[in-house]
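Re: that chain you flagged

S.,

Sorry for the slow reply, it's been a week of failed gels. I finally had a moment to sit down with the sequence you sent. For the record, here it is as I used it:
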Amino acid sequence: MIGFIIISALLLCGVITLLAILFMRPSEVPISDKSIDLSAVLPIQTITDSVIVNGSGDLTIGYRLFLPEVFTLSQEDAKYIHERLEGLFKMLPPATVVHQQCFYYVSQYKNNDFSVNPLKAESIKHFNNKQIINSYTNLYITFANTDLKKGVRKKASNTSLLKKLNYPFKQPYKNYEERLSEIEPKILNFENGLSSITQFEIKKMDSKDLNNAVFDYLNLSYAKPTKDATQETVSPIMV
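Prediction finished late last night. Pasting the structure tokens below so you have them in one place:
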């Protein structure tokens, strides 16, 4: 009798253990491609004619800045650049947003210069091909759509380039050509003033450059700048 009870208890324990193992098995999570259109996330409606057109009708142009190497500017040069930029920004119309964007990525130091100076030659030899953090800078000028009868922005973050708003339409803004022709003289005036600063060089970003900049901003992988974002995909975790 006692043996029967022991055997029954062992069988019951075995059944309970088996049920516990079955219920504790991790369930399989189905993985599916839940990619979304970036237009559903970003406030940018379209990039065309070297201009970013936002949903509210704001127009943004960009410039790639080729800045001097760190610690190479004198105090007088730095003060001169500051004064010139301050003067140029004051010439822009009210409600204009100025946005500087810096990207950092891993690169290698390259210097193939030859020097007869022993100290400089050893310095080049020591640092050449070493891994470094490189960077490049973009400067964006956003001209607000004054047709919306909004007041002057008190915060730069209110621009539709950086913040998605509830637009009453989904199609790209249609009347940007007329507004672009109106602000073209202001753009040329600003660009001429910016290019006259001899301490650095500039390049106006075309539509491809602007599209690549959007990809690099979303990617943020510290990889080298993309050359053609149309051939790339953004990881969903970055959106």
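What I noticed first: The beta strands are 44-48, 51-54, 59-66, 97-108, 131-143, 201-204.

Talk soon,
D.
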